[in-house]
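Q: Please design a sequence for this.
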């Protein structure tokens, strides 16, 4: 019998043998890539567990399909379903033009307070890449998902609010700045709680996966009380909550100041040899250089919303582009999680059965890992890797590979399934 996933008293996910998982099929290319992906998911679950386990997929509406059938872009019962069943997956959604909801994705993240945007970037052999050594990239990005300039506190240049805010800054806060006429304003929001829960999740993940380091990516040299505070709170959470399990560059700085550089280096070496997780920080612009120059120095990344947006697309481009970039939005406290392809609806290609379903397939892999169904995740990952390595690919990869075989979306899914047994 199909049952709900729930959260146990100890905060761990309780996954029944036949979990009900809501899905949004998505607009544009959504149906094509979903139909391909779900066949891969079901075949992999059956391969791993026979009849013992099976997902009961439950369709819920959002986007154009919801609007056409119900008059609402994001019906309340869709949000309620994700709330009730805890874990779900979605295809890309059209952003409604002209008023109402700004973005359906943002609305869903907000409703469930999904504070981590998780974006793995790992290269699969054979995937076309613009860099010489894409295999050096293997990073898990934890992007803060609820704060920063994305909160949406913005005032247009010609608005009364902008003028009033300028007056307040000038008169009440004695700001020494001459606003030019017609100036728009935006407010950046970064809190201790928002920072700490994101960084805590990144460190927990890094420890559980035995990763070597967590890098805090920030622009605190310029934005001292938002991004600089993010860095300080991140070190605080590492030192106060994880103690002996981690070694921070903050500690290194302190030892250097008190006992000199040599002692600090010695301390760091002992920590590394002892297998401690290293917590370091890097300024965002430098980080964008480092992912090209020294990607092996980075493993888990914890960063703010806007930096995370730039960084995850730059890294996705290195490992094969948006056709293969999965993502998840997670609240580790409540257990709520929505997995999603990170690309959009590519409307020109709707119903052509040509687009790459890898992004939604790998989002599914993340979902199965989240459920603890690791066997399923590894069957799919290995078969997908094999399919790419053998150059049997969809148009986006085909155009960049020599001697490849072009497959439709549906045939690409068939090829992955037929590769299940060949990867053992
Ligand atoms: P897009 O990601 O839909 O498409 C840009 C281009 O990327 C496409 O023309 C195509 O060449 C390529 N592409 C996208 N997905 C691909 C795939 N699976 N395989 C191969 N190539 C692929 O971006 P856009 O055109 O800027 O946005 C279209 C719509 O999607 C807009 O309404 C936008 O708001 C929405 N959108 C939704 C999401 C989401 O739901 N998560 C994300 C981004 C954009």
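A: Design:
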């Amino acid at each position: 019998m199909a049952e709900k996933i729930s959260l146990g008293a100890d905060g761990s996910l309780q996954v029944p043998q036949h979990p009900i998982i809501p899905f949004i099929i998505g607009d544009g290319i959504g149906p094509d890539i979903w139909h391909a992906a779900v066949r891969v998911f079901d075949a992999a679950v059956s391969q791993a567990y026979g009849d013992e386990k099976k997902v009961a997929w439950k369709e819920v509406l959002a986007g154009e399909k919801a609007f056409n059938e119900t008059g609402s872009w994001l019906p309340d019962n869709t949000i309620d379903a994700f709330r009730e069943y805890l874990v779900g997956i979605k295809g890309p959604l059209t952003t409604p033009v002209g008023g109402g909801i700004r973005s359906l994705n943002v609305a869903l993240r907000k409703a469930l307070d999904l504070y981590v945007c998780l974006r793995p970037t790992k290269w699969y052999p054979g995937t076309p890449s613009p860099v010489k050594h894409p295999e050096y990239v293997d990073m898990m990005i934890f992007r803060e998902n609820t704060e920063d300039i994305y909160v949406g506190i913005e005032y247009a240049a010609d608005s009364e609010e902008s003028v009033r805010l300028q007056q307040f800054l000038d008169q009440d806060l004695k700001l020494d700045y001459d606003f030019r006429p017609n100036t728009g304003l935006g407010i950046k929001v970064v809190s201790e709680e928002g920072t700490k829960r994101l960084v805590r999740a990144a460190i927990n993940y890094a420890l559980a996966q035995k990763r070597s380091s967590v890098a805090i990516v920030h622009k605190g040299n310029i934005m001292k009380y938002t991004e600089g505070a993010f860095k300080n709170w991140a070190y605080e959470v590492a030192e106060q909550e994880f103690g002996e399990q981690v070694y921070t560059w903050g500690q290194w700085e302190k030892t250097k100041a008190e006992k000199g550089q040599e002692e600090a280096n010695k301390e760091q070496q002992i920590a590394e040899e002892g297998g401690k997780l290293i917590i370091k920080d890097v300024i965002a612009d430098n980080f964008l250089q480092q992912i090209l120059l020294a990607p092996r120095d980075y493993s888990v990344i914890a960063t703010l919303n806007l930096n995370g947006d730039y960084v995850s697309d730059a890294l996705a481009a290195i490992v094969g582009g948006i056709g293969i970039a999965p993502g998840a939005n997670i609240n580790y406290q409540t257990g709520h999680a929505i997995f999603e392809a990170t690309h959009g609806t590519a409307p020109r290609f709707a119903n052509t059965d040509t687009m790459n379903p890898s992004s939604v397939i790998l989002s599914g892999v993340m979902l199965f890992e989240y459920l603890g169904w690791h066997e399923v995740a590894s069957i799919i990952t290995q078969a997908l890797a094999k399919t790419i390595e053998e150059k049997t690919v969809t148009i986006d990869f085909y155009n960049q590979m020599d001697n490849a075989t072009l497959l439709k979306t549906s045939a690409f899914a068939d090829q992955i399934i037929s590769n299940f047994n060949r990867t053992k």
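Q: Thanks. Anything notable?
A: The radius of gyration is 23 Å. Residues 52 and 368 are 15 Å apart (CA to CA).
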